Amino acid sequence: MSDLDLSSIQIANTSDARGSACPGPLLEAKKGIGKVKVGEVLEIYSNDSGTRTDIPAWAGKVGHEYLGMVAAEGYDKHFIRRKK
């Protein structure tokens, strides 16, 4: 992860997985990453607590950069930069 200001990062696409339980948010991330270009950032909304570990682990495993998470009201916003 980096020291980016996640509140001001430019988002290329957002996947809204609020209301879905595991593995829903991860599946949304997999679909969403295909909709952004290499170097762009995907934002994922999720209110499933498992996403806090699943998304960073998946991003690292498949070669993308997990930028971090910001807590919002009732859900989390996760940020992934597509690397390949």
TrEMBL record:
Protein name, UniProt field: Sulfurtransferase TusA family protein
* Coiled-coil boundaries: none
* Keywords recorded for this protein, A-Z: Transferase
One Pfam family it belongs to? TusA
Question: Which stretches make up the UPF0033 domain?
Answer: 16-81
One GO molecular-function entry: transferase activity
Q: Which Gene3D superfamilies match?
A: TusA-like domain
Similarity remark: Belongs to the sulfur carrier protein TusA family.
Q: What is the lineage of its organism?
A: Bacteria, Pseudomonadati, Thermodesulfobacteriota, Desulfovibrionia, Desulfovibrionales
Q: Which InterPro entries match?
A: TusA-like, TusA-like_sf
